[in-house]
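[recover] target loaded
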């Protein structure tokens, strides 16, 4: 996996290079001025060499201007990143992300297996990386499956509400060979925020970078729920009982 280059990281690199270039530019000017001031009148600086030095100085100056332009572009991109990420709100998203908060007595993840893996164990780790629970996966067939942890630790304790836990998958086939797997976070995007110049999404009890999202879909609101369906049926029945076609005669 390749780490994404965030706007904050890029800005830091630009600032570092700009500082170094500015320092080199000032040093170059000082050396060039001292060279011209102390040149031998009987053997002045060669015109070709002097032209080359001026060309180098112009190149450094151009690089400084380029860095200023990149800084402006990154600032504009950061401002537009939040607006662009807001379009994700309300959509169903799937992200490769394993950390979530334990809230209301549970923590929920999804996990994906590349093939059938009868020997699949799930491990829940705390923020310090300690395994607090371990057990067999509820489904070991190929595909995406959901897992909900009730907060009971292997030692018999209880998870604390608000604490962050991470799920880890260890999948093997009957021969003991490892099977590719990954932990997913799935759900509706309920909010966005910026951190270090990078947009983050809120999905359920997880806050994850936009770069970790691998799938998006529109949330379906076309199918009425059972309660909505029964309410609609009662309204139709009530309307039918009050309508008497004989009154129109």
């Amino acid at each position: 996996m390749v780490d994404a280059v965030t706007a904050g990281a890029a800005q830091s690199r630009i600032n570092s290079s700009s500082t170094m270039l500015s320092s080199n530019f000032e040093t170059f000017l000082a050396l060039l001025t001292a060279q011209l001031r102390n040149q031998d009148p009987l053997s002045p600086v060669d015109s070709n060499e002097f032209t080359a030095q001026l060309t180098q100085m112009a190149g450094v100056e151009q690089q400084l201007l380029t860095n200023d332009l990149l800084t402006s572009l990154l600032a504009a991109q950061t401002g537009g990143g939040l607006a662009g990420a807001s379009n994700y709100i309300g959509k169903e998203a799937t992200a490769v992300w394993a950390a979530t908060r334990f809230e209301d007595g549970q923590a929920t993840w999804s996990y994906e297996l590349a093939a059938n893996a009868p020997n699949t164990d799930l491990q829940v780790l705390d923020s310090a990386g300690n395994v607090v629970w371990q057990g067999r996966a509820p489904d070991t067939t190929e595909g995406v499956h959901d897992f909900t942890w009730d907060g009971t630790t292997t030692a018999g304790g209880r998870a604390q509400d608000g604490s962050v836990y991470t799920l880890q998958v260890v999948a093997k086939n009957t021969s003991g060979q490892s099977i590719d797997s990954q932990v997913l976070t799935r759900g509706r995007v309920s909010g966005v925020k910026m951190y270090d110049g990078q947009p983050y999404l809120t999905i359920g009890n997880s806050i994850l970078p936009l770069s970790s999202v691998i799938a998006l879909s529109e949330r379906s609101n076309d199918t009425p729920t059972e309660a909505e369906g029964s309410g609609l049926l009662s309204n139709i029945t009530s309307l039918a009982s009050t309508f008497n076609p004989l009154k129109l005669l």
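[recover] notes: Residues 47-85 form the longest helix (39 residues).
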